[in-house]
Design brief:
- By secondary structure, the chain is α+β, with helices and mostly antiparallel strands.
- It folds into 2 domains: about 1-30; about 35-175, 2-Layer Sandwich (Peptide Methionine Sulfoxide Reductase, Chain A), CATH 3.30.1060.
- The chain has 7 helices and 10 strands.
- The protein has helices spanning about 5-30, 45-50, 75-80, 100-105, 135-150, 190-200, 205-210; strands at about 35-40, 55-65, 85-90, 115, 120, 125-130, 160, 165, 180-185, 185-190.
- The strands form 3 sheets. It has a 6-stranded mixed beta sheet with strand order 7-6-1-3-2-8, with helices on one face. Strands 4-5 form a two-stranded antiparallel ribbon.
- A hairpin with a 2-residue loop joins strand 4 and strand 5.
- Helix 4 (about 100-105) packs parallel to helix 5.
Length: about 220
């Protein structure tokens, strides 16, 4: 066998070994994406908040916790379906943990209000954490206990078993950043502008700051 052929085979074998090692290391490092489901009043606001969190790859507005399959916004907002306005947060556990997300969530809402959130009243606007396994339940319970200790008040946000999550209508997704123009009581505004006015007018950030002070992670979003 010629020297050149021997060298070529050696280089090819070495390259194959390097590729295999690199592929194995990449696979072992990359954890699969996970999801968390929470309800915190208006899902536009919760979606806007958590899409800013490093490690979160996607947030989808939707409905969960009720008995009606594939509910519409009109059905849920009218009441009687049992559903909450909720979001499904997809995240990279290598960058942000479920426990961290729960801590952020509880400090982004009024955990002392069982009748809705801010100006939005009724069952569909209640807060809740929906857990899928014992690890999520334990992390959520720990986060609630920490929140109660920090506030010195009872947290009324329940921890509930996760059920089917139904994605909301397309016009609700990423509402806070859409440039589509609509007619509002303030005149013609983009949806993004209307969202900002709604959020301020509803008193969300003011109440969260009053309750949590500097610990409020998203007030002003």
């Amino acid at each position: 066998m010629s020297r050149t052929l021997q060298d070529f085979k050696a280089i090819a074998l070495f390259s194959a070994i390097l590729l295999a090692v690199a592929t194995h290391c990449t696979a072992s490092r990359a954890a699969p994406l996970e999801t968390a489901v929470v309800a915190g009043g208006c899902f536009w606001c919760v979606e806007a908040d958590f899409e800013k969190v490093e490690g979160v790859t996607e947030v989808v507005s939707g409905y969960t916790g009720g008995t009606v399959k594939n509910p519409t916004y009109k059905q849920v907002s009218r009441g009687g379906t049992g559903h909450y306005e909720a979001v499904e947060i997809t995240y990279d556990p290598d960058k942000v943990s479920y426990a961290q997300l729960m801590r952020l969530f509880l400090r982004s809402v009024d955990v002392t209000d069982a009748g809705g959130q801010f100006c939005d009243r009724g069952d569909s606007y209640r807060t809740a954490i929906f857990v899928s396994n014992p690890a999520e339940k334990a992390a959520a319970e720990a986060a609630v206990a920490q929140a109660e200790q920090a506030l010195g008040k009872k947290v009324v946000t329940p921890i509930l078993p996760a059920g089917p999550f139904y994605e909301a209508e397309a016009y609700h997704q990423d509402y806070y950043k859409k440039d589509e123009r609509i007619l509002t009581r303030f005149g013609v505004k983009t949806k993004a502008e209307a969202y900002k006015r709604y959020r301020k007018g509803c008193g969300r950030d003011a109440r969260v700051r009053q309750l949590w002070g500097d610990a409020a992670p998203f007030a002003g979003s």
